[in-house]
């Protein structure tokens, strides 16, 4: 390389499409010579130029989990979703469908909707009152003296969306990746029985983690650190991600209990016609996925100290609380836990190269009554604590990546899903740079 990577990447650059040719060559080489089985070089986690490329190559090109349909129960309900330089409005229309619009007024670029969620009819920009329909069409713009102003040319820009099993995904690329529908066909049968259309938000938590978005995702993709989650370890077997031959002595008894619980769970799934098999294509398809139904410890029903249910209301058409958790990972920004009594969705939205918003949403049956059918503090306790612990782990790694002493370290065998995420990421950026 003609210059040290750290020197090259000190100053903030433009998106990949407008970088100087020598910068593109240097960054391409950085990706090409990434050492398989090791964490990434420091600039991947610290440099604003690479962050800009991530926003263009990953969040500007691929399907991103934005929200669930439970967050938009009525026509006119909306959420705003911000990541990197982008801001989107995700809106339920009068026909029950979903529209996704860029939250940028076509007059002078002001944010149109400024609240994180709410209900609206037409969308009115607070700057000069340009008014748009829920589909984004410009319906009113006061233009004194203008005789050639064509409102039809100035509607809000639209983004693509897909709603699968009650989960809303968005893509701002002109031509979205085409294999997402195939991935949706994989996970829809697992999630449909929980019926998100008949759920409501019990609680939503937004945490800013002082770490690069990739560190947030890496942390989620392994349980090597799960000794640091005492609340979660009450119900989630700490042997998750391990296989025969990798079980440490102090977890052998837990491993045996896990295998017995998993066998019982699979018997119940076959009885109820629920899919449970592991599907793992994290880096072998563009819309990477891992999904399975896994047993929980204790009563095997929910994320509680004894594994007992946390809501008295079953979801959808499920017939049994003791169904463990249906766990799904999707590249690049989400993971999910679907249980018999509630659902938890996790969305990762990059803020800048060293900050990431992690949004966690707890969903319960729409007829569940707080204080009667569930205790909100108990419902959210395990993952609130786990999120705070993960925030601390991510921030430790971000500080380390900023040290001159940092160099990539090896992933352990139990961290194979981290390697798969990084491999997926590198492939996607290389495709973009090419």
TrEMBL record:
Residues in Rieske domain copies: 63-170
Cofactor: Fe cation
Keyword Metal-binding: yes
Short name of any one Pfam family annotated for the protein: Rieske
UniProt keywords, alphabetically: 2Fe-2S, Dioxygenase, Iron, Iron-sulfur, Metal-binding, Oxidoreductase
InterPro entries associated with the record: Rieske_2Fe-2S, Rieske_2Fe-2S_sf, Ring_hydroxy_dOase_asu_C_dom, Rng_hydr_dOase-A
CDD domains xrefs: RHO_alpha_C_GbcA-like, Rieske_RO_Alpha_N
A GO molecular-function annotation: 2 iron, 2 sulfur cluster binding
Name this protein carries in UniProt: Aromatic ring-hydroxylating dioxygenase subunit alpha
Native species: Cryobacterium lyxosi
The organism's taxonomic lineage, starting at the top: Bacteria, Bacillati, Actinomycetota, Actinomycetes, Micrococcales
